[in-house]
Design brief:
Blueprint: E1 3-12, E2 26-34, E3 39-44, H1 48-56, H2 67-71, H3 79-89, H4 97-118, H5 122-126, E4 133-134, E5 136-140, H6 147-164, E6 168-172, H7 190-202, E7 207-211, H8 219-226, E8 234-238, H9 246-255, E9 260-262, H10 268-277, E10 283-284, H11 288-291, H12 294-306, E11 310-311, H13 319-330, E12 338-339, H14 349-353, E13 366-367, H15 380-386
Parallel strand pairs: 5-6, 5-12, 6-7, 7-8, 8-9, 9-10, 10-11
Antiparallel strand pairs: 1-2, 2-3, 4-13
Helix pairs in contact: 1-4, 3-4, 6-7, 8-9, 10-12, 12-13
Length: about 400
């Protein structure tokens, strides 16, 4: 089998809200075509125009090969070898960031092809089955332009998630900092009060996580607020400091009785090694597309297991990325939850309509996928309708 073409789709919601911290409004979807008619699909949560440019960029020299150029004519079943080929061949302009994000979408599509060609779901190719099902958590992003409406919206979403059957939910409590929702600029002291409202709304037995999205720039100031969250029995606190402040993250780990979670932006296993060894994080959160695809995500899971760290993958895109996260999680015994927002609870048409059939939650868990490959297929009408004109 040979790869014959790589096609990139930049998708964009027509009613995009630039003030929202919401990556489900746009997408880069790749299709890898083969001479046997098998098509693999993948995506990455990154700037879609930038990823498309990197994939389609022509070869310049031996250390600046085009990603598409490196794949055409190759055997798509040699997935790990193709990952190394793309990683080494793009080092001049890649290695991290957007270059790895683009490789991640392509790698995801290659695993989809391999599963379809061999007639098995991807998780059977990634390793031995470790978990009989996957526990999802609801990722809740409230709306509200003042503290009161924001708190009420978040508490209502938490109750709705519990009633829907989720075993856990993550609260986006982003009241200030670089990713504050809807222009909010509330004092740090407000964070525990929002969490208190939500904990009281769902009761003591529902698992809660909190994401504050890089709010603080100083670890000691951050700790003063986070210590007040210890009473709420949180599963983890996500990204309190900037991702490059590894010493500050380690300081929080050493002084806080709540797990610290990071990794949504990290690319390659090398950055996760830094996070785990120097930053001392308790929970690693690889985003399958961003980290470099299923090939690299599985390596991160193995490294985390070696260090007795938990895996809870980040995923805020479409059913393609959700499927990839689930396949990865099945073969990771240290994966506690996967981020999952069912289509019917999401505002984004990309999340609701991009794939024909989603992986679904049943009785609070996601059963093992049985369809070959990733187990999802593109809704072609949605692709055409949301295709960006540029």
């Amino acid at each position: 089998m040979e790869i014959t073409d790589v096609i990139c789709h930049v998708l964009l919601l027509p009613d995009l809200h630039a003030e929202d911290t919401d990556g489900s409004q746009d997408d880069i979807v790749v299709e890898i075509h083969t001479d046997e008619g098998i098509i693999g699909i993948g995506e990455s949560d990154t700037n879609p125009w930038g990823a498309r440019a990197i994939i389609e960029s022509p070869t310049i020299h031996t250390m600046a090969l085009g990603l598409k150029d490196m794949l055409i004519g190759q055997d798509p079943l040699q997935v790990e070898e193709l990952w190394e080929r793309m990683y080494v061949g793009s080092m001049h302009y890649g290695r991290r960031g957007l270059g790895i994000n683009a490789i991640g979408a392509l790698d995801m599509a290659l695993w989809d092809i391999k599963g379809k060609a061999l007639g098995v779901p991807c998780w059977q190719l990634l390793g031995d089955e470790q978990q009989p099902f996957i526990k999802p958590y609801a990722s809740l992003q409230p709306r509200g332009k003042d503290l009161d409406s924001y708190s009420k919206s978040l508490a209502e979403w938490a109750v709705r998630a519990k009633e829907y059957g989720f075993p856990a939910a993550k609260l986006e409590v982003t009241l200030s900092g670089p990713y504050a929702h809807h222009g909010l600029d509330e004092p740090a002291e407000s964070v525990p009060e929002v969490v208190r409202v939500c904990r009281e709304a769902v009761g003591p037995d529902f698992v809660l996580m909190v994401d504050v999205q890089y709010t603080w720039s100083n670890a000691r100031d951050c700790l003063r607020t986070l210590k007040r969250l210890e009473e709420f029995d949180l599963f983890f606190i996500e990204t309190p400091l900037q991702m490059d402040d590894l010493d500050g993250i380690a300081f929080l780990h050493d002084n806080l009785n709540i797990r610290i979670a990071y990794g949504e932006w990290q690319t390659t296993r090398f950055e996760f090694i830094d996070l785990m060894d120097r930053g001392k994080i308790d929970v690693a959160q690889p985003d399958v597309g961003r980290v470099g695809g299923l090939t690299e995500a599985k390596r991160v899971c193995d490294l985390a297991a070696d260090r007795d760290r938990l895996i809870v993958p980040h995923c805020w895109k479409s059913g393609i990325g959700i499927a990839a996260s689930v396949h990865m999680a099945i073969t990771a015994p240290n994966c506690a939850y996967v981020e999952y927002l069912p289509a019917e609870l999401c505002h984004s048409a990309l999340r609701r309509e991009l794939v024909e059939e989603d992986l679904c939650m049943e009785n609070g868990v996601i059963p093992l996928p049985t369809q070959p490959g990733l187990g999802v297929e593109l809704n072609r009408d949605t692709v055409e309708r949301l295709r960006s004109p540029v």
